[in-house]
Structures are given as C-alpha cells and as structure tokens.
Amino acid sequence: xxxxxxxxxxxQALEVVVSGLRRLEYRGYDSxxxxxxxxxxxxxRKKAGKLTNLESxxxxxxxxxxxxxxxHTRWATHGGPTDANAHPHVSEGxxxxxxxxxxxxxxxxxxxxxxxxAQAGVEMSSETDTEVVAHMLADILPATGGDLAAAMxxxxxRLTGAFTLVAIDPACxxxxxxxxxxxxxxxxxxxGENFLASDVAAFVDHTKDALELGQDQVVTLTADEVVVxxxxxxxxxxxxxxxxxxxxAAEKGGYDLFMLKEIxxxxxxxxxxxxxxxxxxxxxxxxxxRLDDAVLRDIDKVVVVACGTAAHAGLVAKYAVEHWxxxxxxxxxxxxxxxxxxxxxxxxxxxxISQSGExxxxxxxxxxxxxxxxxxxAICNTVGSTIPREADAVVYTYAGPEIAVASTKAFLTQIIxxxxxxxxxxxxxxxxxxxxxxxxxxxxxxxxxxxxxxLDTVEPVRALxxxxxxxxxxxxxxxxxxxxVALEGALKLKELAYMHAEGFAAGELKHGPIALIEExxxxxxxxxxxxxxxxxxxxxLSNVQEVRARGALIIAIAEEGDDRIxxxxxxxxxxxxxxxxxxxxxxxxxxxxxxxxxxxxKGHDVDQPRNLAKSVTVE
Length: 619
Ligand code: AGP
Description:
It is a single chain. By secondary structure, the chain is an alpha/beta fold. It has 3 domains: 3-244, Glutamine Phosphoribosylpyrophosphate, subunit 1, domain 1, CATH 3.60.20; 258-445, Glucose-6-phosphate isomerase like protein, domain 1 (Rossmann fold), CATH 3.40.50; 459-601, Rossmann fold. An 8-stranded antiparallel sheet has the order 3-2-4-1-10-9-11-14, covered by helices on one side. Helix 12 links the parallel strand 18 and strand 19 (393-396). The longest helix has 20 residues, at 409-428. The radius of gyration is 25 Å and the shape is globular.
C-alpha cells in the first residue's frame, strides 16, 4: 500500500512526481523519496516521515533539473520507517551507473535473494526487501546490453510475492521501466509525456487517458512511447480507459479534512451509485454484468469476500439479498476464506467487495474462488483496478475517489451496489415480480435525500464526540441490519480515535459481553424502527434496559418519532424514518461523524491515521 509515481516527458520531473506523491500519500506515509536523471547522473533524496519532511529536505538540498524521475511514499513492511529504508533504493556504483528502484508489495523470497547477493559480496544499506531488486538489476544489466526493460523482466522472473516495481538507470536517460504482479500500477498517456502510478489520482491533473496493466507485465515508458510486454518479452494486451472524474475530486474542496468532504459527499455518491441502473424497459441493468440470466438462475449460494468496512457492507447486504432472492448468503473475511477449505463451485456466486480494488486479502480470496470454479462478481470503486479486472462481472459504486483512509461514502455505495446485485439476482430468477423490484428501487431512490437530512442534524453528534473524547472504551449494539452498523461504528472509532470500541449483536450481550458494562460505560445503540421493525424494536428496548441497569450511558441512534426510546436514552441522535433494510444508509452517518470528531478532538491525523493505509496491498 505504498504510493508510486514515475514520469518522463517535457516537464520538470520533480514537480510532477512530488505533486503526484501528494495525491497518493494516503496510501502510505512512513517515508518518502524521489530519484531523477540529470545530465546522465542519478540524483536521489529520501526521508523518513511524511512527504513534508522530504519537501523540506529538497528545499535544503535541491535536486538538479530533470525530465525523468520516480517517487515513492512508503507504508513500512520490511524494516522500520527510517531514512535508510525509505525508497528509492539504489544499487552499488556511482551516479552515472547506479540503478534506482521503488516498490509496492512484498517480495516473499527476498531473504534467499539477499543471501545470494551477500555471497557475491554485495553490501546491503537497508533492511528492506526492495533493495535486492536494485542490486539484481545492476548485476543483470551488462548482459542485456544496458536494456533496463530486459533486465527488469529477468529479475521479475526470479521474484515471488506481490510487487509493483519502477526503476530508472542514468545509462538509459528518458526511460522509466515498471513491472507488476498482484500490486497496482496504471499508465497515464500524455502528449509528449507519460506517467506511471499506483493510482490515477497521481496524474489525473495531466491526463485522463490511462492504461490498465495486467498480471506479470513490464511497461517501458519514454516521452513518446509506451511498450508493454509479459515477463518473457512478448507483447502484452492492455486495456485503455478514461478516468471518469476531475482532478478537483481528489482535492479537499474547502473542507479541512478529506473525511469531512467524503461524509458530505454521501448523498451525491448514493445518487451516483443508483444512476442509470434501470433501462427503458423498467428492468434493472448493471454495467459489465457479464453473467447471463441462465447462469444466475443456477446459483445456489452467494459468498461475499471482503475486509474491514467492505466486509461490514457485505454483512448488511446479506439480510436484503437473502430476503429478496431466497439464496443463502455467507459473508467471509477474505483473509480467512482463502486459508480454509471453503465449499464453493460453479453454482456459487462469489462477490468481492473492495473500494480500492487492490486489497491483497480480497484479491487472493477472489483468485481462490476462481480456482474453485465459482462465478465471481466485483463491487468496486476504482475503475482499472485489479479485482474488477479479474472477476467475471463488476458493479462499480461510482462514489468518486475516496482519499481518507477511513471509508465512508464507499461503505454506503457498497451497500447500494450489493442491493442492486441482490435485486438483479431476484429479477433474473423471477423471485420478485417487477412491481416489487420497482418498489424497492423507489425506496432506494429516496435515500440520497434521507442521507442529506441526516447531514443537516449532525451538530449534536459532534458535541457528543467531544464529550466522550476521554472515554476508554465505547460499545456499539445493533440488531439485524443494525448489527453490521454497530461493527462499522466500532471500527471507525478504533481506526480514528485509537480507542477500544466493540460492536455486538444486541441479543448477544447477555451471553457474556454485558460483563464489560460499568458505571458510565458509553453504549451506542442502533435502534430498529418501531414502525418497520416493531418486534426488533421491543427486543432492543429490553437490551437497553439490561445495560442501563448496570450503569451504562446510552447514546441512541433512533428514528424520528420514536418516543419509546426517549426515556431510556441519555443522548438521542435522530435519523429519518426509512424502510428497515435501508436503515444502515442513515444510521451509519452519525457514527462516522462521531468518530471523525472524536479523533479531531484528540488531535489525531484523521485522514491518515497511525499504522494504517488506504489500500492494503499485502496479505
Ligand atoms: C475502513 O475504514 C478501512 N479503511 C478498511 O477497513 C478498508 O475498508 C479495508 O481495508 C478494505 O479496503 P477495500 O475496500 O479497498 O478493499
């Protein structure tokens, strides 16, 4: 989950690379570095800490003018966040022949390669796996006649694991070479200039014309040409695409935090996720649904594989998809699914939910499902990323770039997309009649406005968050679709406020967790609707009594007009009345604001929380 940028063209490479890194810093911010080629010499600057540390270093010790360069922001895997471990890594030799390399991923056989290099007398200057690539390239280059792409192909054939590699060699000025296996890398096609990056956000200011790269490919960039081969040197297919959002979408747009912006964008994101899904025939149409109705009619089980917030979206969807299709839906943490012996086959539809489309746990689970013969569908927010490329079908969420590490609008649009898939299955299997599908689509069509209403009433939530900023633990309880919302609320508090928080199914409290309740323990209660879920509402009131009797302090997220909860809630946050299955779309928003405000009150870096990265591209 590092940020990678490469550039060759007419502009000053340093400017293009550093501004690109700034767009990618959410992917990792333990250290940063750049390398350029100027007058046949390699020049490198790198520094531990955030990008601003590197920029200060560049101010004190500037790089020479150059039009070829690479840059990297790091999320540490092998070796701590130090100057020495920062990328780029450089082979032995002087400025006229040393090779510079940057890397995203993990080279799983690096120890073996390090010992081979040590036996050959090479001295390592870092603890990283990446450095071995720099030395291997330098070692192979002479035999290739100085062909950096050929050397990269040979090196890649010796590597195992996940890697995106980008390298430059002062002996090959005006050339940037990249390679990818299981890790993101996209090409930006400019006029007289070309770009490489982990994410299109790095070059969308300069061009919206991009190329997806496939598995095990090497790309060679010059200012006027892009050549893509496989690891054996054969020409490889690429898939051009156009970035479907403006550069401004990757900026804060006047908000102090990306997270605040992305919370506020949720009504529009939900509307965009729904837009254009119903054809003139009144039937549901899903982009790139490359599974025909006959296949969908034969499905006898759905398995959702995802991580973190995306897994919570899958848990929410389970209730609706089972209700609409009568197909069993299992929701599995991707990292667990891959390493057990799951029962999947040609009649299983495995749905991989991923905002980034690059989460390694989810990608590997998808590949495991494909190997077992399952039909696969990706729900993803990043066009051109790996997971949708490898799935049979894809439903994009169209939420626009989500920069803050803590996922917000992606979560709501993942629920929308999963609901659309559920309705599509019900339509293909004629499990629901068209009028029922139309009714549910109308309920969904109301959601952007309902989410907007919640945003108008979140000020009390901010005050509440500041009041609880010193709490040591917060519990979240929910029932039915409110249970995954409780899990999501707890996750937000963990990742932003660095506070212990735990979500429970409310009915589960009395089977153990209620022992956690002490005088004043804050318990956030996602209260089911007294109108659309009266039985669950009654049960939840009993659960609230149970925890209050033991001293809990109740923060209720409750529907407008629900007066029965009022006497038992120390604080009540109101959300609009919506149909039961739609409640997560409104009840999650106060929890996002609660966590964001609490983290702000505690002085944390909300957009780039400690130890985290936006896209976890290692297992
Ligand atoms: C959520 O706030 C976190 N950023 C994290 O749990 C995230 O949802 C998870 O890593 C999955 O990421 P993905 O959707 O890009 O696959």
